[in-house]
Amino acid sequence: MRRRTLLAGMAVLGVGGGKAHAAGAWVLVAGATGRTGRPMIGILKSKGFKVRAMVRESPADDLGADETVVADATKPETLAAAMKGITYVVSALGRGRGNSGDVDDAGIVNLTNAAKAAGAKQLVLMSSIGAEITSPTDTSVRRPEIMLAKGRGEAYLRRSGLPYTIVRPGGLEDCDHGKSGLKIGMMTVVEFQAGGRPVICRADVALVMVEALGNKDAIGKTFTLVGDTSAPVDAWRATLAAMKRD
Ligand SMILES: NC(=O)c1ccc[n+]([C@@H]2O[C@H](COP(=O)([O-])OP(=O)(O)OC[C@H]3O[C@@H](n4cnc5c(N)ncnc54)[C@H](OP(=O)(O)O)[C@@H]3O)[C@@H](O)[C@H]2O)c1
Q1: Global pTM value
Q2: What is the CATH number of the domain that holds 170?
Q3: Which site among 103, 145, 194, 206 is 20 to 30 Å from 46 CA-CA?
Q4: 146 domain-assigned
Q5: pLDDT digits over 154-200, tens only?
Q6: Contact criterion met (CB below 8 Å) for 89 and 115
Q7: At a CB cut-off of 8 Å and minimum separation 6, what does 163 contact?
Q8: Residue 93: which domain range?
Q9: Which atom of ligand 1 is nearest to the CA of 103?
Q10: Is residue 10 part of a domain?
Q11: Domain assignment of residue 3, yes or no
């Protein structure tokens, strides 16, 4: 398909979203220029999804998406056009380059509202181990205010009525997906630190998020995710299926 850049407010034409499941459905990737968003686009394409990359500024390089839309998660008025015709939304939003505003809190609230208003079927959110803390004086994390903001964003999505999946990864590294086992669970940040701060490839986080789309085993679940070299590469799928909903 021809690649296009759409400006917020422009009509989105020729978008064939609305399929109930996976292949062929349109996915909006928020945070598409980021270190997790970029490999996620390739994984989505390899599984037959149509991808609309959401960017604040058009990047110099080709992200590999079918379409690119300019929008900012902290500016709700830019999101309706980005969502048009979208079946699934994935968020790999983070602080990125320059001023990200309150992307973890207001950004996720805005994304949730816009996805719901547009009739999206699911939002898959990349959060973080540590998002469970509840006090600004919690010393178990370096920047409690960031984890509290992530916790508020998560809580809003869980309450929204929009089908969701929330993934809380451990320490992120840039490496290929599908090479290591993964451990899915509900690890607190205290357990994470006591366990030697296990890392995970950003691309493996992207893979799990993509596999959550339209997947009844993942909907309504919040879980932590770290690498586990002792586990078989695909064993995480059975763990996820067995996990209870929130
Ligand atoms: N570092 C870790 O070890 C760790 C561990 C667990 C979880 N996490 C979390 O994982 C998430 C992803 O991390 P990452 O390293 O892949 O992120 P990243 O490389 O920093 O990318 C963040 C993306 O968000 C975009 N963005 C920022 N503010 C935005 C806004 N207001 N509207 C639209 N897009 C915006 C950035 O766009 P621009 O290109 O325009 O800046 C960029 O594409 C973050 O939330 C991070 O906190 C990190």
Answers
A1: 0.93
A2: 3.40.50.720
A3: 103
A4: yes
A5: 999 999 999 999 999 999 999 999 999 999 999 999 999 999 999 99
A6: yes
A7: 121, 122, 123, 219, 220
A8: 16-242
A9: 31
A10: no
A11: no
